Amino acid sequence: MNMLELYKKHAEICKTLASPVRLEIINLLRGKERSVNELMKLAKLSQSNVSQHLTILRQNNIVSTKRKGKNIYYKLAYPEMIKACDIMRNILIKQLRSGENFIKNLEGK
């Protein structure tokens, strides 16, 4: 795999993560396996909506599945995905704080 192919794959994963609902699902799977029903209740979303997002996450190898009886449980395929999401959230928080400080400085003048 050359570098361009690697960048394309990287962009595909970033595109997959570019959904607030999928980010919430990833966060709900932080260290836990959960069923669709659990994710529906926690995210307050319909079964079809949760299933659609889980399908996208599964197709992009972000989550993996395990069947237990009639239920399918989802977990993060790579738990370090949480670290990546946390880093991005921390950067966002810093950007928001920086923007707030900028506005406060403008208002103070």
Q: Can you tell me about this structure?
A:
β2 and β3 form a beta hairpin. The chain is an alpha+beta fold and 109 residues long. It has a three-stranded antiparallel sheet with strand order 1-3-2. The protein has helices at residues 3-16, 20-28, 36-43, 47-59, 81-108; strands at residues 34-35, 63-68, 71-76. It is built from five helices and three strands; from the N terminus they run ααβααββα. The mean pLDDT is 93. It has a domain at 3-77: Arc Repressor Mutant, subunit A (Orthogonal Bundle), CATH 1.10.10.10. The chain is 66% helix and 13% strand.
Write down how many β-strands occur, each being a DSSP E stretch of 2 or more residues.
Answer: 3
Low-confidence stretches: none
> What's the shape?
globular
Q: How do the helices and strands follow one another from N- to C-terminus?
A: HHEHHEEH
Gyration radius over CA: 18 Å
Summarize the biggest pleated sheet: 3 strands, antiparallel
Q: What's the end-to-end separation, in Å? A: 54 Å
Q: Bin the strand percentage.
A: 5-15%
> What average pLDDT do the residues reach?
93
* Tally of separate helices: 5
- The CATH topology of the domain at 3-77 corresponds to Arc Repressor Mutant, subunit A
Can you say what the CATH homologous superfamily of the domain at 3-77 is? Winged helix-like DNA-binding domain superfamily/Winged helix DNA-binding domain
Write the topology of this structure.
Layout: H1 3-16, H2 20-28, E1 34-35, H3 36-43, H4 47-59, E2 63-68, E3 71-76, H5 81-108
Antiparallel strand pairs: 1-3, 2-3
Characteristic key phrases:
109 residues; alpha+beta; Arc Repressor Mutant, subunit A; three-stranded antiparallel sheet; 3 strands; globular
